[in-house]
Write a structure and sequence with these properties.
Elements lengths: L1 H24 L4 E2 L2 E2 L5 H15 L6 H20 L8 H31 L6 H4 L6
């Protein structure tokens, strides 16, 4: 079960990275027939990326995770300069940074709360839960 949950979390994180790559670099970012909103979309997307990427790690590497997300956000903005009608917008990069940072902090807080809650339960009954990949 532990391996399954870790693999599932990892696959969800990979799927979010792929969807983000498509949305950030496509000429007209649509999901189905719905146009992706301009403001706040970067923050929400990078929040989800940071949250799932952090939760997918057994021992979260904060600096490496933030560096990868900041680099991805910066490179996507540079790439958008070469994809008309998209434009390179420094405010979008700022949204990427804010979303990444908030997502990472939220993931670390979630993992700490979950760990604390499960440890407060009777250890004898819940030994297996304490070995969950999102908790240890």
């Amino acid at each position: 079960m532990k391996r399954f949950l870790r693999t599932l979390t990892f696959l969800i994180a990979i799927a979010l990275w792929c969807i983000s790559f498509y949305l950030l670099l496509s000429r007209h970012p649509y999901v189905g027939d719905v146009r992706v909103p301009e403001h706040g979309a970067h923050t929400i997307m990078f929040f989800g990326l940071a949250f799932m990427t952090t939760c997918a790690q057994h021992r979260p590497k904060v600096v490496l995770t933030l560096a990868a997300l900041y680099l991805f956000g910066g490179m996507s903005e540079i790439a958008q300069h070469f994809l008309p009608p998209r434009t390179c917008d420094p405010l979008d990069f700022l949204e990427d940074v804010v979303g990444s940072t908030l997502g990472l902090v939220a993931a670390l807080a979630w993992m700490a709360l979950l760990r604390r809650f499960l440890r407060s339960l009777s250890v004898s009954r819940h030994d297996k839960l304490l070995e969950h990949p999102l908790i240890t």
